[in-house]
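dumping the sequnces here before i forget
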Amino acid sequence: MMQENIRRSSGYLSWLTSYGIYAVLLLLVVVFSLGNSQFLTVDNVLLILQQASPLGIAVVGMVFVLLGSGIDISVGASMFFVSTVAGCVLNASGVIPAAWLTDIRGVALVLGMVLLLGALIGWINGMLVTRFRILPFIVTLATASILKGTGLKISGSASIGVAALGDLANGRVGPIPNVLILFVVVLIACDYVLRRTVYGRHLMAIGDSARNAERTGIKVNRNIVASYVICGVLGTLAGILSAGQIGSVSAGFGEGNEFIVISAAVLGGTSLFGGKGSILPGAVIGIILVTTIMNGLAMMNASPFIYTIVRGLIIFCAIALDSMGHQGELR
Amino acid sequence: MSDTALRLAGVRKAFSGVPVLHGLDFALKKGEVLGVTGENGAGKSTLMNIIGGVLRMDAGTMTLFDEPYAPCSPAQATAKGIAFIHQELNLFTNLTVAENMFIDGFPTNRFGAIDHKKITSIAQQAIDRFSLPVTPATKVADLSTGIRQMVEISKALLKNARIIIFDEPTTSLSSREKNALFHTIGELQQRGISMIYISHILEDIFRLCDRITVLRDGRIAGTSPAAEISENELIKRMVGRELSQIFPSIEKTISDTVLLEARHLKWRQRVKDVSLKLRAGEIVGLYGLMGAGRTELAKVLFGVEQRDAGELILNHRLMAQVSPSACIGGNAAFITEDRRSEGLLMSKPVDDNLCLVKSADLTNRLGVVNVVERARHNREAIKDLQIRVVDPATQLVSSLSGGNQQKVVFGKWVMKDPKIFLLDEPTRGVDVGARFEIYSIIMDLAKRGSAVLFISSELQELMGVCDRILVMQEGRLTGEVPKAEFDQEKLLEMALPGPALT
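..and the predicted 3d for all of it:
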């Protein structure tokens, strides 16, 4: 009785899309540890986690947008923009009291400010997508260009030091990196929102069928705008942390991050077609896989140009798998 | 308190000036199962969409349990206790059974989190009530259609539905699932829930319903207790109109040359062992109810879908592989059902649309289109087909009436002078006056030696235009009737599913 009534998707492809990523990760770990004995050490694993955490936070935001059948290409540019603004505020002694700059108050103030900025960027993206019915890809491509240009205008394309953020971004509590703790907090909170709140379930419903959701009386537009706001805020936070890890914001900062973030989300099983995906374990495994590849390549002394190629291949494979597994109308 | 659950009086509805419902009076009694049937386009779905709050009526009143009722949205209809079980279910496949049941009203705790214990336990009760083989945490994507339907019914009951409307609910069910559904409908009735059951499967309607209402051309053709009417009488009510329309009469001869022949075509579960022949000069009608597989058959014939089995002979050549471009090359044309999205570039001017197919023949060696020649062909087509357009170079197709749009589609193909025409519902959305012109075009095509396959849901026009009519039902050809033996009731009988009627 049970078997007859319950339909399960089976077969090679579905196995590949659900468990393939673990196999790939395992394979990579084996290959990289054979290539370099330093790869599989506690120090390096913690380093990978520290490297993965900032962008991992952005991936969580992206999962929200993707679940609602949207996409946000502006994440990389908004990381650049907000970090530039943060750098300028931190360096211009006139804006906030000089005494604050050296302690936690300055950082907290800057953080609060840029998170608001991130929320605003997300809200604008969301409003353009829902009210003006412009394709999310185009909207966020345009905002990306505007944010990038504005940031460059502010910085004059010079590199801006953000050493004040270093303590937050590179510090550790015992052996555990601060950013990892922050990442875990974001993960747990957002996973809860997604799985256990009305908002999370409604967003999933919208991603499954916006038309049905509308008919059921779900506030489709409002929920979608909220997903862009979440993505904007988390993307901004990720940008600040990653700028703090590097110590400065150069003209190329953030470039290509949107693709790392999107491909990590998709590798983690979040569909570009909406309605399917998860934060735990999806977003986590996705960003760890991407970071592991980058870290491993570095440890094997691969040419930096290879990174871009590998990144492209990852995106391609992830999206190809997603599209093959998807049956229905293409967006 | 009267014994009426829902009453409609004088309900009218028109779409862009074309009336679809002509003042319906209609009543659903408390606790009864009312069957609603009628041909395609009789107005069943429009009526139900009005009751369900999807559409607003133009005139008339509705009364629900003695209170005025005028829903502005489906959510309002739900709040008033009206639930719909559509052919396409309104469930979210990526959510669980419990989540789906509460999607529009999750109970939450103080922190805004969903009270998971509560929804799980209530969902479990609902599941137990019908002994469904699922748990509250099962994802809907993992359920079969029949079980999904049960979940939707349970969801409706949780919201205290007083009236449940079933719209062709058995279309994608197995026979066992169907029996389970009917059993459930019986239970619901015992609990005092009133139901409207829409279907064209008469056997099911007789089995389930207390009374049967027949809709015809936007009017009620009669309501009778199921015990007091026979299937034959019901069919009479469904078709019972006079052949009032006028059809063009054109002298033409049918030759023996077979232009298109299909032998034992099969495609998925939609086309089952279909064989047919189209001769030069012949207009062959293809009649069937919605979902009978007519459009699918046309698509297979034209190579839009690849057949699973069978042979296709086009212009005396056995085609190994059929593709739309091979068919166009072999002088066949396919005028699709949905001209807005498949047949026309709505936001382009008439000229650009007319020359879409012909352009390839008007190019020089470098692939540049001869504009002068193109304009000449376009002017000819506009004149021949009497397309009413002021300036074909700038006027957008979207600004034309339905009839003129359809003529543009014809013009597009006629220019290429094809010998085989597949027409899928060519008069849909075309007003009566323009229909005559479309019929004339079709007959003229046949007169010039083309073979025409004319797919339609309207018996009347098929009987007026065709030389013979093929009837399709659930993927099979169930009948072939020559012109001399055309009879509305007989044809409809062949198209209706279920055991053959006597």
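The first strand of chain B starts at residue 4 and ends at 15.
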